[in-house]
Amino acid sequence: MNVEEVVMRLGRAATVLGAAAVLVGGALLAAPTAGATFPGSNGLVAFVTTRAGGGAPAIFQVDPNAPAIGTPSGNVAATTQLTGASNVDAQPSYSPDGSKIVFSSNRSGRFAIYVLPSNSTPDAILQTDSAVLLSQSAPGSSFDDFAPSISPDGRTVVFNRDNAGLWTLDLSAPDPAATVQLLYSVNLAGASSDNGAGSRPVFDPTDPSRLLYVGADNHIYLLSGIGTPAMTATDLSLATGIGATKADANPDWKPDGTSVVFDSTRLNGRKLFTLDPSATIASPIAAVALWPTWERSDTQPVYSPDGLRIAYTEAVLGSSVLTNNVVSVGAPASSAINVSSVPVGTPQNSQPSWAPANGGGPDPVIPEAPLAILLPGAALLLGGIALESRRRRNILT
User: Fold this and answer.
1) Where are the domains of the chain?
2) Tell me: domain 3-388, CATH 1.10.10.10, correct?
3) Which side of the chain, N or C, has fewer Cβ within a 10 Å radius?
């Protein structure tokens, strides 16, 4: 394969990156949104919560349409635990068919990327699970991997390594495989080492040559033409008029690629906004607040697979409780339903991710060539793109 072929194939990879604020254990910590939502009918919502017996943040799933959801006691039967609670698990993101969840965890000493079937059940007593390590052979590693999301073909995982660059791995490759540095250098929004939070890159569900990420300046960037000489990063926050004193975070694509939802400090507190990703600095399109006068702080929004609803995290006034709410697009905030309530205790819930309804079904068809070309044992620097490889352990089949 010549250099031109490598670049053309790599040019089909893309992502969304976000960082928000979430309360964990009473402390305000940085936390990203969930990965991009892929189109389909609406399935389960994954989220991070402190409700499990082990006390550490774990990943749970809830059926947002189950009876009694939204009532004060919720519906415990509609909420199931996915990962153990003996470590910090964060940032769940579904595969395009809903059958797998990738996430970040510090269970090996450093934060790394793991994968689990979305229908898994952990050991309730030992608070352990069968997640498979993807991104590194911790604890020998000297770096932390955060905030994974999956490409539209279900094969490539993109993630944030040490807030210093975007990396990819091939989810379906046999061992030996490689992690590849997608960008030689990109300054990302800061991560919190005690909860695995960090900027999440997320693929455009309709165009894998584009991704969104949040830069160290707290602006949302659209990276397009990945892997080609024409690769560019457009500052969408600047295009919509944000200045240096405001912070945008947690972008997520609408499944048809026509809109981006995010949270921002453009108004008092954090509010949810949408923008047109086709906006340019030359032709600015203003971001639109969903509920400009809403008094509560809302963060980490994600679209539903059908594009008609939004799940998000809300800080309840007068307490440290964080809830996961669901609201119809265009409806007032007062009509939102809390989908993560439980009958006792005050767990903190955050980082929602919405799955297509066919979770647990067969994997999508995998093309012969992955979106990101992995070059074991090799390094390539071309047009500002560096590809560096390292071995990783075998993955989930």
Assistant:
1) 3-388
2) no
3) C
